[in-house]
Design a protein that fits this description.
The protein is α/β, with parallel strands linked by helices. Helices cover about 45% and strands about 10% of the residues. It has helices at about 1-5, 10-20, 20-35, 35-50, 70-85, 140-150, 210-225, 250-265, 270-295, 300-310, 320-335; strands at about 60-65, 90-95, 120-125, 155, 175-180, 200-205, 240. The model is unreliable at about 95-105 and about 130-135 (pLDDT under 50).
């Protein structure tokens, strides 16, 4: 811990991140993801000073079931933005963590062979630590660090857990969902969940013999989206096809993102959404601070552990145990 205090030079972090130094950017994100209290304080100081340099990117969430080709699409899409528009592209890829040992493979970077070799690209795989919603607890802060480092496009690749994966919607401007040909029937499009939040349904792997079927599915989704109520943003979800292998439909995806940004900026919904997302971030931070406070109360921690053992031994029921903990919490807050 002492060595970390000595090595943390706030001014140096700020200077190097603003200059686009990828190594220092990685260190800042690692520090934010750390569970050590000292790292949390350091990262908060750093982030507060960098906030005025954030907000200048287009934030794009990319979701879809495992096997839809998200990583390959990002490699092709990100490379297209680099080569054709000279954009700086950051990818925040969230990997699922094991429920048993809490470990993650973090292998997304290996599937982005071209993008990972480009100096104007930054790829950061992070574990979700079994948190629901498809993203990491600190994905939002990682995104802000990337913006401060000058990245124009932030791509957030979610875990890929299906329709419950909607947390990413609270931190991006544009949300696209990848689906493979034959990946779902028409009824899926009118189910509540992530489908009602996406801005673009992208049918991937629309190549070779799948092209005709992909076009049919696209039209079916367009018809189903027509049943959705009109959004305040003035944007209606679209459906398109693409092939990461043949690199077709990639330019059309970017045109759709640009069209979305133009419409929502002109009617001010782009900024309204970001303000609403800041409120959600605030609530997350408060909830995390409360959780940290509770965890650091040694007496309360011992009491919780004791009740857990009693519940296992059927000496007390869960309701009575939780009520006892609530009483203890009230006493703690009265003493502060």
């Amino acid at each position: 811990m002492d060595s970390e205090k000595q090595n943390f030079n706030l001014d140096k972090y700020i200077k190097m991140i603003l200059s686009g130094d990828r190594a220092m950017l990685s260190k800042a994100i690692t520090m934010r993801e750390s569970s050590l209290p000292e790292h949390k304080l350091q990262s908060e100081k750093l982030l507060k000073l960098l906030l005025k340099h954030t907000g200048n990117s287009i934030r794009i969430g990319i979701t879809g079931i495992p096997g839809a080709g998200k990583s390959t699409f990002i490699d092709v899409f990100g490379s297209f933005l680099l080569e054709k528009f000279n954009k700086k592209v950051a990818v925040l890829a969230v990997d699922p963590s094991s429920q048993e040992n809490h470990g993650s493979i973090l292998g997304d970077k290996t599937r982005m062979e071209f993008l990972s070799r480009q100096k104007n690209a930054f790829i950061r795989p992070s574990p979700n630590k079994t948190i629901l919603g498809g993203v990491n607890q600190h994905t939002r802060e990682s995104m802000l660090f990337c913006e401060a480092a000058g990245y124009d496009v932030i791509l957030i690749e979610t875990v890929g857990v299906g329709q419950s994966e909607s947390e990413v919607h609270t931190m991006v401007d544009f949300l696209m969902m990848l689906q493979i040909v034959g990946g779902g029937d028409d009824l899926q499009a009118i189910k509540r969940g992530v489908y009602e939040k996406i801005d673009l349904l992208l049918i991937n792997k629309a190549d070779q013999k799948n092209k005709i079927e992909a076009e049919i599915e696209k039209e079916n989704f367009i018809n189903n989206f027509a049943l959705f109520p009109r959004r305040d943003s003035g944007w209606h979800p679209k459906a398109q096809t693409c092939s990461s292998i043949e690199k077709t439909g990639i330019n059309e995806v970017w045109k759709t993102v640009m069209e979305f940004e133009k419409i929502t900026r002109e009617n001010n919904c782009f900024y309204k959404k970001r303000k609403a997302q800041n409120l959600i971030w605030f609530r997350h931070l408060v909830a995390n601070n409360i959780q940290d406070f509770i965890t650091n109360q040694s007496d309360l921690k011992s009491e919780i552990e004791g009740f857990q053992e009693q519940i296992k031994n059927e000496e007390i029921n869960s309701i009575d145990a939780s009520e006892r903990i609530t009483k203890t919490l009230r006493k703690i807050f009265k003493q502060l």
